[in-house]
Amino acid sequence: MDSQKEKEAIEELSRAIAFKADLHLLHLRAAFHEHIGDVTGALRDCRAALSVDPNHQEMLELHSRVNSHEP
User: Fold this and answer.
1) Which long-range contacts (CB under 8 A, 24 or more apart) does 12-15 make?
2) What angle do CA 68, 33, 64 make, to 5 degrees?
3) PANTHER family per the record (predicted)?
4) Within the chain, which residues score under 50 in pLDDT?
């Protein structure tokens, strides 16, 4: 997926999340943020998702992976 398509996907996910925050959507958007190198955005979504479900294994793994890239 090219950078423009990824940014469009993030925008679409943001609109959906604004309508109804959903753990799956937050996870997906965090993964897109991670893929384009937006550590801050990825961590924000990880933390939001983990505030809903602190034991969500995929989010814990993503958070750990992204957190290792934080400056």
Assistant:
1) none
2) 25
3) ETO1-LIKE PROTEIN 1 (PTHR44203:SF2), ETO1-RELATED (PTHR44203)
4) none
Amino acid in position 53: D
Helices 57-67 and 39-52, packing angle to 10 deg = 150
pTM of the model: 0.84
- Judge whether 21 and 48 are in contact, CB under 8 Å: yes
What is the residue whose two structure tokens read 């933390």?
47
Structure tokens at 6: 């990824």
pLDDT at 21: 81
What amino acid is encoded at 67 in this protein? N
The tokens describing 57, both together, are: 């294994």
From the number of C-beta atoms within 10 Å of its C-beta (0-12, 13-18, 19+), residue 18 rates as exposed
